[in-house]
Write a structure and sequence with these properties.
The complex is a heterodimer of chains A (146) and B (381). In chain A, the strands form 2 sheets. Chain A has a 5-stranded mixed beta barrel. With 146 residues, chain A is mainly beta. Chain A contains 1 helix and 10 strands, in the order ββββββββββα. By secondary structure, chain B is α/β, with parallel strands linked by helices. Chain B has 13 helices and 11 strands. Chain B has helices at 22-37, 58-64, 82-95, 127-130, 135-149, 154-168, 182-187, 215-221, 249-262, 279-288, 297-303, 319-323, 327-342; strands at residues 4-11, 46-50, 72-76, 101-109, 190-192, 195-196, 205-214, 226-235, 271-273, 356-363, 373-380. In chain B, the strands form 2 sheets. Chain B has a 9-stranded mixed beta sheet with strand order 3-2-4-7-1-8-11-10-9, sandwiched between helices. In chain B, strands 5-6 form a two-stranded antiparallel ribbon. The longest helix of chain B has 16 residues, at 22-37. Chain B starts with a strand and ends with a strand. Classes of the chains: A mainly beta (146), B alpha/beta (381). At the A-B interface, strand 6, strand 7 and strand 8 of A face helix 4, helix 5 and strand 5 of B.
């Protein structure tokens, strides 16, 4: 059985209704940042709260990367998904198909993206909402917990 | 502040040459620039060198073989903008009156660096990098937006590379002196869609150097003194402040500062050398530098305005795409090329009657910022 570790603490969490990304929201100016910051990047205030920004966004753009980089084999897909006005860079699961067009609704999943020292590294990934299902994401979650 | 002039330029050949050390290439470029300036090496009062990989005290190591010791020497790093940063640093020292004459050197031996044959690796703190971001990926995603919002086509991106290689074929110092067709560029291996291999600059070994001086020295030594009318170096801003991926706002801010100082508008520029590590970013740079209106970059490329014989030829040296990209050397190399253009010494790539030129360089990717650094210098005769 392999162990698991998030790529970075505080990026995401599981809720009763599925995974969500975590952001910081400034009490003073309301600026929301992902990944969360300790200090507001917009106004400099230090009173921030952690907020869930959910698991759904719109695809801004995507690219199929045809060169490996030692960690990911050629053919991996990346893109920016806009959630709560924030551009989030992540890998996309397009089921081996060409990426969907800009504007496509995307859903978050938390998956083991690579292995490091026999440990699965968990990271956010997005899948077109039309092909995402709670069942599959939950089963991933359960298998991840197993 | 005093006026500052470029009085001598030098460059090593660019190519994959692991048998030449970074110091040998730096010394070659420095010797050439010093000879071009008509000064003695011991006239130098300050040295700024830039290098990303991989050793310390590059300035002192290069200069000791030229008989230059004891004076103030500084070694700077600012990723691919390091060369532009060395130039900017020397500019400030001369403008402020600390010194009268000095040299800025950029040097890189990519083939002997720890990243030879690899992508520039992400830092441990770089979340996007950990998840698969890299330079080609960043520019591929930007190119995807150019296709969506600007009507850019794959052929447009390929045309940037064709243009660069048309110019590079005229430059005896280019790594690739071969012309290409749009079909060849599009038919090369896909790297990150839509960027193909022949739309990526090669990693290259090479060095470049510029000797700069106060007006008094320039009048004494330079046949055609080239004045640095505007000099700017800026750092990236938080990416959340950027509405649109099809701009690198720091490049735009650097250009505005340089234009203001020079008292010119972008339409006064006759020739440009800029960071074209990936073909598609050149279209973004047209807009960021104000060479055309926002949204008109693709049209500007298609019009031929930036090709040979156009209104403002861009990268008549062949650019990074054809010359190759020795990281820290490129920011100094663009100064050499623009200076040669303004002195009428650019050979087959000469832009007739060029009197105002611009040298730009960008450097570094940091998660959360639009990029790390941008330098812009406006040169005039």
């Amino acid at each position: 059985m392999s162990t698991q570790t998030p790529v970075r603490e505080g990026l995401f969490t599981e809720t009763a209704s599925g995974p969500t990304l975590l952001a910081s929201r400034c009490d003073t100016c309301g600026h929301t940042a992902y990944p969360a910051t300790a200090r507001c990047l917009a106004c400099g205030a230090e009173d921030l709260e952690t907020v869930e920004i959910g698991d759904e966004g719109d695809l801004l753009c995507a690219s199929v990367v045809h060169m490996g980089n030692g960690r990911f084999a050629p053919g991996y897909v990346v893109g920016y998904v806009v959630i709560d006005g924030i551009r989030v860079f992540a890998q996309l699961d397009t089921g081996g198909e060409e990426p969907p067009p800009p504007g496509t609704s995307m859903t978050l999943e938390i998956v083991p993206l690579w292995q490091q020292d026999d440990t699965d590294v968990l990271a956010p990934r997005f899948v077109p909402t039309s092909s995402a299902s709670r069942t599959s994401r939950t089963s991933r979650k359960e298998s991840a917990d197993a | 502040m005093r006026d500052v002039f470029v009085v001598g330029v030098g460059q090593s050949d660019f190519g994959k040459t692991p048998d030449r050390s970074a110091v040998q290439m730096g010394a070659q470029a420095a010797r050439e620039a010093i000879a071009d300036a008509g000064i003695k090496p011991t006239d130098l009062q300050g040295v700024f060198s830039s290098r990303v990989y991989d050793a310390m005290v590059t300035s002192q190591t290069i200069m000791k073989d030229l008989g230059v010791t004891r004076i103030e020497m500084v070694n700077v790093e600012n990723a691919c903008a390091g060369g532009g940063t060395a130039v900017r640093s020397l500019y400030k020292d001369i403008a402020a009156g600390f010194i009268d004459v000095g040299i800025a050197i950029g040097v890189e031996s990519m083939t002997t660096s720890p990243i030879a044959g690899k992508l520039i690796p992400p830092g441990k703190e770089d979340l996007d990098g950990q998840l698969g971001m890299s330079m080609p990926v960043l520019f591929a995603l930007q190119a995807q937006r150019l296709m969506e919002t600007h009507g850019a086509t794959r052929e447009d991106f390929a045309q940037v590379s064709v243009k660069a290689h048309d110019f590079g074929a005229l430059n005896p110092r280019a790594q690739y002196k071969k012309r290409l067709t749009v079909e060849e560029v599009l038919g090369s291996r896909m790297i990150a869609d839509p960027i193909t291999l022949l739309q990526c600059c090669p990693n290259t070994d090479g060095a470049a150097a510029v000797v700069m001086a106060s007006e008094e020295w320039a009048k004494k030594y330079a046949e055609v003194p080239v004045r640095i009318a505007g000099s700017a170096l800026v750092s990236g801003d938080y990416d959340f402040r950027r509405d649109d991926l099809t701009t690198l706002a720091l490049g735009s801010r650097a250009a505005q500062l340089a234009y203001e100082q020079a008292g010119i508008s972008p339409s006064d520029i006759d020739v440009v050398e800029l960071h074209d590590a990936f073909a598609s970013e050149e279209i973004v740079a047209y807009e960021d530098l104000g060479l055309c209106e926002r949204g008109e970059g693709v049209g500007m490329l298609r019009s031929g305005a930036t090709s040979a014989g156009g209104r403002v030829p861009v990268n008549p040296s062949g650019g990074l795409l054809s010359l190759g990209h020795p990281l820290a050397a490129s920011g100094v190399r663009v100064m050499c090329n623009v200076t040669d253009q303004l002195r009428g010494r650019a050979g087959a790539a000469q832009v007739p009657g060029a009197r105002v030129g611009l040298a730009q360089m960008l450097g570094g990717v940091v998660s959360g910022l639009d990029a790390a650094a941008a330098s812009v210098h406006v040169l005039k005769v």
